[in-house]
From TrEMBL:
It catalyses: Hydrolysis of (1->3)-beta-D-glucosidic linkages in (1->3)-beta-D-glucans. The lineage of its organism: Eukaryota, Viridiplantae, Streptophyta, Embryophyta, Tracheophyta. Its EC number is 3.2.1.39. Residues 1-17 form the signal peptide. InterPro entries: GH (IPR017853), Glyco_hydro_17 (IPR000490), Glyco_hydro_17_plant (IPR044965), X8 (IPR012946). Belongs to the glycosyl hydrolase 17 family. PANTHER family: GLUCAN ENDO-1,3-BETA-GLUCOSIDASE BG1-RELATED-RELATED. This is glucan endo-1,3-beta-D-glucosidase. Pfam families: Glyco_hydro_17, X8. Keywords: Disulfide bond, Glycosidase, Hydrolase, Signal. Residues 362-444 form the X8 domain. It comes from the Eukaryota. The keyword Glycoprotein does not apply.
Length: 477
């Protein structure tokens, strides 16, 4: 009977109520060696009252897990597809057919609200690799949606990076778009306003602090005591308002002061850079939530939606812009809260992922009984593949010294390779142990067991299958 009630409860939960004041969602990226199973992530979204989620692609396993949930979804088109989507309407039509229309048919719909063309395709590090094709791709996707009669339900957006706008003087009133983007931005904004779509943009007090000596930590963290930045008659008390108004001026300078703004990425990482720590991230996010609720400050126009970067840590993210890139999660890779924070007024804590399946409690460390004179070369080999961001300068494990840091590298590779014995060999210098080598804040993780989590049967069917089995097992029912 217990199981039956449980199934009913799970089914009832599908009609989620939206309680968040203003719309605050999260980015859900999957660039991890062992991603948390989609069904567990959707449980996390529901149990934490998160009503909106932004994806970076359109993985069918993820979308199936979201079906029937009533969570508002942004599906993403990866940058590498932009060029072909500009070149061909047919390609755009089949993308929309496969990755949007399909989820609008039948009972268990996915509430897709936006299609994001590219992930920050105008980022300066990409040069002109994507820029010339973005608007054409967006137009083709828009036409394909219209053809599928979804033109009014699903909006096409282009997430713009934090480096797309600036103000050399640091004064928001002089904000403008990057000179090489001026023309593209005019085209983009004309497209967006024509279709009543919002402007998606990253705001990053963390990057401002990290890159700009003139921005203090207190100013970044919404501290009342921070020294204000003055601009004409306005006085800015925090880095968020300063950046946001710089953007608003940039939009006004090309004649689009009325477009709706969505902050599509904002967060604070917890590792891989100075002041990227859990306590700092906690202060930042609590400050941000309080600030968004007040709807005051010096904001010219508040954002209509805000997406926290990010839900989970991802150990395969590109770290060319910094080691912190793999540590944006408000939850660890395995769905456990890093600090006291909540999306929801009624609670102070995030709800963790439940019943997570881990590999057995085993780690790979250096064998101290061997001659370790050449072990550092082995560590470098491991780090070329594994995630060593925590042992590098600014990382939470940067203080553990040698050969603890070598053990960290060995373990990271061993975990990424699902505990295969060969991956802990290192020319005989590795040793498998059941004693947790973690110390203080430096966590030697055990990876997730993903061998049977990517179930072929959707969860929805699993529930009914369980019910069927249950009914069959109770003859009197
Ligand atoms: C985008 O596609 C159109 C239509 O195929 C093509 O004419 C145009 O040259 C493409 N844009 C660029 C920058 O290649
Ligand atoms: C649908 O999206 C997935 C994942 O982003 C992609 O691999 C696939 O090619 C897309 N389908 C089409 C027809 O473009
Ligand atoms: C640096 O910050 C101070 C306020 O702390 C401000 O008065 C000054 O104009 C800023 N300078 C630049 C170049 O941003
Ligand atoms: C950008 O375009 C606007 C509007 O056409 C123009 O006034 C401004 O001077 C341009 N800025 C740059 C840097 O080209
Ligand atoms: C920020 O980082 C610097 C450099 O590591 C450190 O000296 C300072 O104490 C940190 N501040 C906070 C509040 O964590
Ligand atoms: C990481 O990003 C940089 C800059 O965009 C790029 O040059 C590099 O190829 C990327 N690395 C990987 C492994 O994708
Ligand atoms: C360390 O490397 C050097 C140079 O390759 C080699 O001569 C030496 O035998 C190695 N020592 C051990 C203990 O493997
Ligand atoms: C480990 O720490 C030692 C001493 O601090 C350092 O020389 C070495 O480069 C570190 N190794 C790695 C893989 O970070």
């Amino acid at each position: 009977m217990g199981l039956f009630l449980l199934i009913l409860a799970v089914t009832a939960e599908l009609s989620l109520t939206v309680t968040t004041a203003g719309a605050v969602g999260v980015n859900w990226g999957t660039e991890a060696s062992h991603p948390l199973p989609p069904s567990k992530v959707v449980e996390l979204l529901k149990s934490n009252g998160i009503a909106k989620v932004k994806l970076f692609d359109a993985d069918p396993k993820v979308l199936r897990a979201l079906s029937g949930s009533n969570i508002g979804v942004t599906v993403g088109i990866p940058n590498y597809m932009i060029k072909s989507l500009n070149a061909s309407r047919k390609v755009a039509e089949s993308w929309v057919h496969d990755n949007v229309t399909r989820y609008f048919n039948g009972g268990n719909r996915v509430r897709i609200e936006y299609v994001a063309v590219g992930d920050e395709p105008f980022h300066q590090s990409y040069g002109n690799q994507y820029r010339p094709f973005v608007i054409g791709a967006a137009m083709n996707i828009q036409n394909a949606l219209a053809k599928a009669s979804l033109g009014s339900e699903v909006k096409v957006v282009v997430p713009s990076s934090f480096d797309s706008f600036l103000s050399e003087s640091g004064r928001p009133s002089l904000g403008h778009f990057r000179a090489d983007l001026n023309k593209t931005m005019i085209e983009l904004l004309s497209f967006l306003t024509k279709h009543h779509s919002p402007f998606f943009v990253t705001i990053s007090p963390f990057l401002s602090f990290h890159q700009n000596k003139n921005i203090s930590l207190d100013f970044s963290l919404f501290k009342e005591t921070a020294q204000a930045h003055k601009d004409r008659r306005k006085s800015y008390r925090n880095s968020y308002d300063l950046s946001y108004d710089t953007l608003a001026s940039a939009l006004a300078s090309i004649g689009f002061s009325d477009v709706d703004i969505v902050v599509s990425k904002i967060g604070w990482p917890t590792d891989g850079a100075a002041n990227a720590t859990s306590p700092t991230a906690e202060v930042f996010l609590k400050g941000l939530m309080a600030h968004l609720e007040k709807k005051t400050g010096s904001l010219m126009r508040p954002p209509i939606e805000t997406y926290i970067e990010s839900l989970l840590d991802e150990d395969h993210r590109n770290i060319s812009s910094g080691n912190f890139e793999r540590h944006w999660g408000v939850l660890t890779f395995d769905g456990q809260a890093k600090y006291g924070f909540s999306f929801n007024h009624n609670s102070k804590k995030l709800v963790n992922a439940q019943n997570v399946q881990y590999l057995p409690p085993k780690w790979c460390v250096v064998n101290n009984n061997k001659d370790l004179s050449n072990v550092s070369a082995r560590a470098l080999e491991a780090c070329a593949v594994a995630d060593c961001t925590s042992i590098l300068p600014g990382g939470t494990c940067s203080g553990i010294g040698w050969p603890g840091n070598v053990s960290y590298a060995f373990n990271s590779l061993y975990q990424q390779n699902d505990h295969s014995a060969e991956s802990c060999d290192f020319g005989g210098l590795g040793l498998i142990t059941t004693v947790d080598p973690s110390e203080d804040n430096c966590r030697f993780s055990v990876q997730l067991d993903t061998s049977h989590s990517s179930s072929q049967i959707p969860d929805f069917f699993q529930s009914w299958l369980l019910l069927l089995l249950f009914l069959l097992s109770v003859p009197s029912f």
